[in-house]
Amino acid sequence: MKLLVIAVGQRMPTWVEQAWQDYAKRLPADCALELKEIKPEPRTSGKTPAQMMAAEAKRIEAAIPGHALTIALDEHGKDLTTMALSQELEAWRSGGQDVVFLVGGPDGLDAELKRNCRKLIRLSSLTLPHPMVRVVLAEQLYRAWAIMTNHPYHRA
User: Fold this and answer.
1) Which of 17, 45, 89, 125 can bridge 144 by disulfide, Cβ–Cβ 3.0-4.6 Å?
2) DSSP tag of 29
3) pLDDT in tens, 47-89
4) Is the Cβ–Cβ distance between 102 and 117 less than 8 Å?
5) CA dihedral sign of residues 80, 32, 15, 129
6) Contacts of 130 (CB under 8 A, 6+ apart)
7) Neighbours of 112 (CB within 10 A)
8) What is the DSSP code (8-state) at residue 117?
9) Residue 156 — very low, low, confident or very high, per pLDDT cuts 50/70/90?
10) Closest C-alpha among 121, 30, 31 to residue 70
11) How far is residue 29's CA from residue 11's CA, in Å, rounded to a whole number?
12) How far is the first Cα of the chain from the last one, in angstroms, to the nearest whole number?
């Protein structure tokens, strides 16, 4: 199984890249974590937020591998505990299906793109900056794997 995060945004601060790499390298090959960055639509183009999200959605859709389970991160998504995420991860791994997590840009994700996703989840009720979302998601996926495999990283 591969976990792919498709995120709108490029040129993240060094600390984000380092944190991402740290968690990604901790995961084993059978639960590999990868990142695909999508070029954001220029905010100076005069387009409406809906038009910008639609343009970004086209780039996101082109990056989604076929037959992958697609999950959008969204403020209106389902809250999951870390234990529930671990159970989901175990089910995905048992099913042998790759999982794609979509992270939108400053305006979020296109409504139609979200409707086409299997699930909507949210990481927090707090508003998180986009660079932080990547780090929190990577850490939580690693923690979910640690719970699933009884690794000592997660201590209840």
Assistant:
1) 89
2) G
3) 999 999 999 999 999 999 989 999 999 999 999 999 999 999 9
4) yes
5) negative
6) 7, 8, 9, 103, 105, 106
7) 11
8) S
9) low
10) 121
11) 26
12) 26
